[in-house]
Specification:
Helix content of chain B: 10-25%
Shape of chain B: globular
Distance between the termini of chain B: 44 Å
Number of strands of chain A: 2
CATH architecture of the largest domain in chain A: Orthogonal Bundle
Number of domains of chain B: 1
Oligomer: heterodimer
Distance between the termini of chain A: 49 Å
Number of helices of chain B: 4
Low-confidence stretches of chain A: 16-20
Structural class of chain A: mainly alpha
Mean pLDDT of chain A: 91
Helix content of chain A: 25-40%
Mean pLDDT of chain B: 88
Strand order of the largest sheet of chain A: 1-2
Largest sheet of chain A: 2 strands, antiparallel
CATH topology of the largest domain in chain A: Cytochrome Bc1 Complex, Chain D, domain 2
Shape of chain A: globular
CATH superfamily of the largest domain in chain A: Cytochrome c-like domain
Number of domains of chain A: 2
Number of helices of chain A: 14
Radius of gyration of chain A: 22 Å
């Protein structure tokens, strides 16, 4: 009897401790294998914590004013709401709309034109851009070394207090890798969570999505992570050529990264230059404002016919991709 | 007893040392080793030249004998930096035996390493040899001034990089080396500059000119006669 009691207690202890260890990363059911190579940068709670603190710390910018979160706020699925083009240091305006951050472990290229080839290297770009943080990785490392708090955080994460560029970048990656959004109503419906189902309107919207949107905004990530020309008329002032600037292939002219539709309710404005304020304007673009050019996506070459009712249903479906648990997750918030 | 052990250790370590060899790179202008910052060099093509800075990656150091690989360095990535004179001397732990050897090395960083995320040491992006807004390592930086340059401050900046088609600037050099002592390799900056001066003063992204100049640069490596 005594032995049995002990075994039960022991089993209970293991169960309780296992369930209280925070889950740093997981692959949601029926999702593909992540692209990120975790062997080269194995996640640990301490490194994620360091990355999280760095993400919210303006120490990354030249004048100590701009942090990653300045343009990637958690409440908006980590993007910059209300700004068509994001603004950075000294209120300078960039040339593109800051993207929402989620499910980054599944992406192979970053930026609207795929200029960055690895998640670890992503943070380098805003750190060094004169309109964003206006600094450089080597000066960031100097600033971090000067702070006692960071020496101790690096010690906790890496076993010694050496601050290097590699460690700084990998820690920021670690935090970004934990930003998984897979808890929307849509996810619950497709995973047959009891008591949750689409309304008739959402169901109809899902059918319309599958017909008109899914070939580029493919489930479950709601993007192919490829590059397409979706018929936006080139802005005569920004003159942004898109992917061709990186690939030098003519066939990539005016192509931009296909963004995910997950949490799109929260990430206005839309498109690489933020030209559309709301989802109604986006749908109007696809039905009535496609600009024809040689690289236009073949799916958009035929006019998309959507009634007002169809559009309403599609937007109702898109709103089922909003993941409240994701945007309010305390594990992602500012850490004092 | 202690003395004996000590002398054996000394003898052993000196034996080990004799197996070592250094590969020494020496930027040259004509017959002179290049001095940074102050020395003025005369060029037919570009007038008067001053060199301010040179940084380059040497990687994948391998020795061959009769087309068979005899030794290759593990994690072979070296950043040579004119601000750190010792960085031009690469100590190898082992000298392959044999009379005629071929030394092969890359000038720059291979494509696989370019897409492998953040790395440390000589590959840490902190070294200023990484392009943040078009991911990839810069294989060579050569900067200075020349009287024939048309830029406002008469500066030239050749930053050669790019690992993807059609602008892959990674180059491989193969040199025949004899068996004795350190391997001393000159880098003929006069020849490089005579070609480079006929083009743009500033190259700072993957482009056709960068590929061409990386080929020119590859051909500037030579074994110095002792």
């Amino acid at each position: 009897m005594r032995v049995k009691t002990w075994i039960t207690c022991f089993a209970l202890m293991i169960f309780v401790s296992a369930s209280t260890i925070p889950r740093l990363f997981y692959v949601p059911d029926n999702w593909p294998k992540p692209a990120y190579d975790f062997i080269k940068n194995p996640l640990s709670a301490e490194k994620v914590r360091l990355g999280r603190i760095l993400f919210y710390d303006p120490v990354l910018s030249r004048n100590n004013m701009i942090s990653c979160a300045s343009c990637h706020s958690p409440y908006n699925a980590f993007t910059h709401i209300d700004h068509t083009l994001s603004h950075g240091i000294d209120d300078r305006i960039g040339t593109r709309n800051s993207p929402a951050l989620m499910n980054l472990a599944w992406y192979r290229t970053f930026m609207w034109d795929g200029a960055v080839n690895h998640l670890d290297m992503q943070a380098l770009a805003p750190i060094s851009h004169p309109d964003e943080m206006g600094s450089s990785l080597d000066s960031v490392v100097v600033r971090l070394k000067a702070r006692k708090r960071y020496r101790s955080l690096f010690h906790d994460a890496f076993g010694d207090s050496a601050v290097t560029g590699e460690r700084t970048l990998k820690s920021i990656s670690q935090f970004m890798l934990t930003l998984i959004s897979a808890g929307s109503k849509y996810d619950k419906v497709v995973n047959n969570v009891a008591g949750i189902s689409f309304t008739e309107k959402e169901k109809r919207g899902y059918v319309i999505y599958k017909k008109h949107c899914a070939s580029c905004h493919t489930e479950p990530l709601f993007t192919t992570n490829g590059f397409e020309n979706n018929g936006l008329k080139p802005d005569s002032l920004l003159k942004d050529p898109g992917r061709i600037r990186i690939s030098h292939r003519k066939s990539d002219s005016l192509k931009f990264k296909v963004p995910t539709l997950r949490n799109c309710e929260l990430t206005a404005p839309y498109m690489h230059d933020g030209r559309y304020r709301n989802l109604q304007m986006v749908l109007f673009h696809y039905t009535d404002a496609i600009h024809n050019s040689p690289t236009l996506a073949r799916q958009l070459r035929e006019k998309m016919e959507l009634s007002e009712e169809d559009k309403g249903a599609l937007i109702a479906f898109l709103k089922t991709l909003t993941d409240e648990e994701f945007v309010k997750d305390p594990a992602y918030s500012f850490l004092k | 007893m202690k003395k004996i052990i000590f002398s054996i250790l000394v003898a052993f370590s000196s034996f080990m040392m004799s197996g070592q060899v250094a590969i020494v790179f020496r930027p040259m202008y004509g017959k002179q080793a290049v001095k940074w910052h102050d020395t003025v060099y005369a060029s037919h093509q570009a007038g008067l030249i001053k060199f301010e800075k040179m940084k380059l990656y040497i990687s994948a150091i391998t020795f061959f004998e009769d087309d068979k690989m005899t030794w290759s360095e593990a994690d072979s990535f070296h950043l040579l930096d004119s601000e750190i004179p010792g960085s031009f001397r690469l100590q190898m732990p082992f000298l392959p035996v044999g009379r005629k050897k071929t030394l092969r090395f890359n000038i720059g960083i291979d494509s696989l390493t370019n897409v492998s995320g953040a790395m440390g040491g000589d590959l840490d992006p902190i070294n200023g040899m990484y392009w943040a807004w078009h991911s990839g390592y810069i294989n060579l930086k050569l900067e200075g001034t020349c009287s024939a340059c048309t830029s406002p401050k008469r500066e030239f900046q050749f930053h050669l990089g790019g690992y993807q088609w059609p602008f892959n600037t990674l180059q491989s050099s193969e040199l025949q080396v004899s068996n004795s002592g350190d391997i001393e390799i000159g880098i003929d900056l006069e020849s490089f500059f005579n070609v480079a001066a006929s083009g743009r003063d500033h190259i700072m992204s993957p482009c056709p000119e960068a590929v061409k100049l990386s080929e020119t640069f590859r051909d500037c490596f030579f074994i110095e006669k002792k």
